[in-house]
Amino acid sequence: MKKKPRIKVPKSVKTGEVFQVKSLFPHPMENGLRKDKKTGEIIPRKMIQRIEATLNGQLVFSADLHHAISANPYLAFHCRAESSGELSITWFEDTGKKTTLSQAVEVV
Fold first, then answer.
1. Is the pTM of this model over 0.85?
2. Of 77, 100, 78, 80, nearest to 89 (Cα)?
3. At 56, which helix (H) or strand (E)?
4. Which site from 22, 32, 38, 85 is most exposed, i.e. has the minimal number of CB atoms within 10 Å?
């Protein structure tokens, strides 16, 4: 069973309130140095290089990741919302692939 990326935000926040965003991204984070135990071949490098989070299209968080990050990285950060909208997190791989996941944020 393959796990899916997840984002967790509060059900609602007050205008201007700082809230925590939690995310989990299932990813092997292969460094290109390990060998496949069955074939003996090198497993190709596949790493998340950058993470960006936007709220209503405005960048609220970004991070450059390096080879010391473990597989299936968990990330938590804080941001502030002035109005309801969509929080999106995008994970950028060194292979050029990117994955985006979004979650609604309700401001009351």
1. yes
2. 100
3. none
4. 38
Q: Which residues contact 29 (CB under 8 A, 6 or more apart)?
A: 46, 47, 48, 69, 70, 71, 72, 73
Quote the CA–CA distance of 91 and 52 in Å, as a whole number.
Answer: 7
DSSP characters over 34-87: -B-TTT-PBPPPB-EEEEEEEETTEEEEEEE--TTPPSS-EEEEEEE-SS-EEE
Instruction: Give residue limits of the domains in the chain.
Output: 6-105
Distance CA 81, CA 78 (A): 10
Q: Which of 47, 49, 66, 58 is nearest to 85 (CA)?
A: 58
Look up residue 45 and give its two tokens: 């490098």
pLDDT confidence of 1, banded at 50, 70, 90? low
Q: Is the pLDDT of residue 67 over 80?
A: no
